[in-house]
């Protein structure tokens, strides 16, 4: 009987640790609220199976080859960044305080300076986005560097 109690206690402790650990992991991944809540409910209802399902299906894994490819791309970007002028717009260049704060974000987060003469245009539908891209490509003289930011509701970076 004593042996049964120790196994039961061990299973209950493992159950609690799995729920706590995987729940913290789900929260730290900063998923959309509905998605995170669905995973947490699944983990609480089916702690062992829910945790296994989250670890298999819930996390986005890039894989070794894709990670190596991203690292090699970052090396090329780093070389290109060294060629760019080191001047970034300051508050005195006609930007509002809010715009100046936004212009400092890329350099602070990614190390990519904001250059004079660039524009930021937020488009929220597919057709204007495609027309804008096509017009920019048509106006290009040498080459185009395209960069896209996809905003996901409920996720902060």
Account of the protein in words:
The structure is a single chain. By secondary structure, the protein is mainly alpha-helical. The protein is built from six helices and no strands. It has two domains: 57 residues; 66 residues, no CATH class.
- The fraction of residues in strands falls at under 5%
Count of extended strands: 0
Domain count = 2
Give a quick account of the main beta sheet: strands, pairing sense, barrel closure.
none
Q: Any idea what the radius of gyration is?
A: 24 Å
Name its key features.
0% strand; single chain; mainly alpha; 157 residues
What's this, in brief?
The chain has 157 residues and is an all-alpha fold. It has six helices and no strands.
Write the layout of secondary structure elements.
Elements: H1 2-28, H2 33-45, H3 47-58, H4 64-83, H5 97-110, H6 126-139
Helix pairs in contact: 1-2, 1-3, 2-3
